[in-house]
Amino acid sequence: MVRIHRRLPVWSGFLMLNTLIGLCSYSLAQVPATTSRPASTTPAAGVTTAETKVATAATPAIPSAYINPDTVKAGPFDMGKMWTFDNPPKDYFRKTYNFNADEKWFDEARLASLRFADYCSASFVSSNGLVMTNHHCARESGTGVQRKGEDLNATGFFAKTPAEERKVEGLFVDQLVKIEDITNRVQQAMGGTGAGSEQAQLQAREQAFNTIKQEYATKEGWQGLELQTITFYNGGRYALYGFKRYNDVRLVFMPELQLGFFGGDPDNFTYPRYALDCSFFRVYDNGKPLQTTHYFKFNTNGVRDGEPIFVIGNPGRTERLKTVAELEYDRDLQVPFTLQLLRNRSTALQAYNATAKNDSILNEIFSLENSYKAYTGQLAGLRDPYLMARKAAFEKQFQTDARAKNVSADRLTLWDDLTTSTTQLRSVFAASNYLAPSERIMGELLTFANVLMQYGELSISRPEAAESARSLVVAPKLRNRALEEAYLAAHLAEAQTGLGSDDPYVRAALNGRSPKEAAAYLISNTKLADPAFIKDLAVRPQAIRSSDDPLLALARIGFSRYVTAARQARQLFQTQEVLRGQLGRLLYDVYGTSIPPDATFSLRINDGVVRGYAYNGTKAPIFTTFAGLYDRNYSFADKAPWNLPARWKNPPAELLRQPMCFISTNDIIGGNSGSPMINKNLEAVGLVFDGNMESLPGEFIFVPDLNRSISVHAGGMIAAMRYIYKADRLIKELVGTTPATPAKK
User: What EC identifiers does the entry list (predicted)?
Assistant: First the structure.
């Protein structure tokens, strides 16, 4: 399931108070959480550490003893193939595939493609505004329209008539209709190297963005559009995008959860794969289905081995321009701690949902598990000495090519400057992450204790600010006490591992107890959930500093350390952001558009070919069939997550022969979920929904040898509609009056 990992939210009151004192929280809430290497290598009781959990997955593909960094060369596409529509790769497509894609071809591809809300991709697939995206992108929208007595996760949904199509409140799709290069204006506003502090440069950039958007909002051809500034090459280039937003979006078809997410987390990021991860919506305009000439016609005859194929979508984020020093930092610190947080919070939510049975919690668990598996694969790549040697080789070649371009000497120090700032970040990460106030890190009550400490500090340093923030000081309403204890216990165990058992914060928190025992004690003895107690503190903030409440006492020890470390981290992040922008500008100056920029959840087109690969001592086929779905179901005795709904239990023989999923060498990442897979004729032949395990290092390097994108076959979608769902109305719209029988291979 290739979907953007949504970073866990910080408590809203804490964000508001941060604004008042100008402090950013550098925790998992805003950037992937990181830490220094644990002071203790012994996992705390009852808590799984990322270091032990991913040990097997992170075994290097090639033993380091056999790697000679001096002989490893960078690959031609290590930086990927996420081409922009600002500079479409016409010459590259012609040379590589003997395919003359002209401006009209790229315009049609762009206008038929969509951004689905703010987290997925989609496309028009009929002239009547029919939209195709993944089931896992639509899961929340689909369940949001279910009515009393319905369970659309269990039954799926199909609107047999137009009147039955259900509007999803709050859902929108965006179509990119205007592009403008604004690089010169933004870079001039920021100034050159040394033009003010990093903070001043970033503020100047944001001001330039706002000025440009205000100007274009009244410009002919741009009026009424959703305007967004897009950053390429970490600031090497900038663009203004204008989107036509459609707010009336209605659900048409969605399979059952067991089909859309068949195999669940065990099959996630694997291949061969058997998931009907598709759904269909319709855009309405003035109460009627949108009439559009820009859409991808369905081609159910599918794909051939070696055929060129193209993905159009909105990849969320890659960091392939990161230096080796930054990647080592991710490998040693950032990713292991992120994994630890994801695993422990998912475990807590699963225990909670065993009794709560809440769909929104289930979706949150899916997201955490999806992210955990993705970060596991990323860490495996970071620990692969061959891949890291390739990154080092690219860095070395980049420096050589920059010198050949006679760039100024000060620009060649960027790598050293980034190494210096990265080293400094290592020294502050323990305090700025383990002590970061966030309800998803330490639970609601201890987070609130930190908010109160901040409020108390404001009452002394800035009484007027504290007065305006008083309305935010409200006792939190716990979702569930057991869940609160689980989050706090996880936080205390992680702090014990990361800060060390002798750390003052850890000693005060545990006081001779285990993390689980300490969490139970602290929550049993705090008054922070008592509205009367909090109301008194709100009007007497000076009492916060002397209160004997155990959570407030703990926050008094940790909060000041966090503030100091977070301020240092903020400055270092600002420094790195400016340095990365300068490095991106250098990359563009040296290589131009021959190297595409990192993903930024902006519309891209990437190319690949349909191709199998070696795996598990054998070879993966280019496509799977419905027969494989039933084999997997039978092999696991119809047990979750390989169980099937009743209507799937006795399939017609013809269905078993139909293709279901297929693979290609395309370059995708989270955010590409729901992207159409098209051929040279602008026909939809598939729907991207995942990558294989070998694709997970794609966050920092693209290696097409074993990297594969996984798509639902267009013929497979039609076959399911035809033989199982009897969705004749939808089949007719997609492929014509007589449904085409998918080709047999």
Answer: 3.4.14.-
Contact 253, 93 (CB under 8 A): no
Side chain identity at residue 151, one-letter code? D
User: Which domains are present in the chain?
Assistant: 12-51+320-572 (no CATH), 83-172+247-314+603-745 (2.40.10.120)
pLDDT classification of 471: cutoffs 50, 70, 90: confident
Rg (C-alpha) for the chain, rounded Å, is 26
Question: Is residue 183 classed exposed, middle or buried when 0-12, 13-18 and 19+ CB atoms within 10 A define those classes?
Answer: middle
**Are the C-beta atoms of residues 693 and 709 closer than 8 Å to each other?**
no
- What string of DSSP letters covers 337-374? HHHHHHHHHHHHHHHHHHHH--HHHHHHHHHHHHHHHH
Single pTM value for the model: 0.87
**What is the secondary structure of 568-599 as a DSSP string?**
HHHHHHHHHHHHHHHHHHHHHHHHGGGSPPPP
Specify the pLDDT at position 1. Answer: 58
Span 605-654, pLDDT tens digits: 999 999 999 999 999 999 999 999 999 999 999 999 999 999 999 999 99
CB-CB contact of 430 with 496 (8 Å): no
Token pair recorded at residue 322: 């990161």
Q: ω into residue 32 within 30 of 0, thus cis?
A: no
The tens digit of pLDDT for each residue in 61-77 reads: 444 555 677 789 999 99
Q: 173 near 117, Cβ under 8 Å?
A: yes
Helix (H) or strand (E) holding 81: none
In 3D space, the residue among 379, 333, 298 whose CA is nearest the CA of residue 734 turns out to be 298
206-220, 237-251, 323-337, 449-463: lowest mean pLDDT where? 449-463
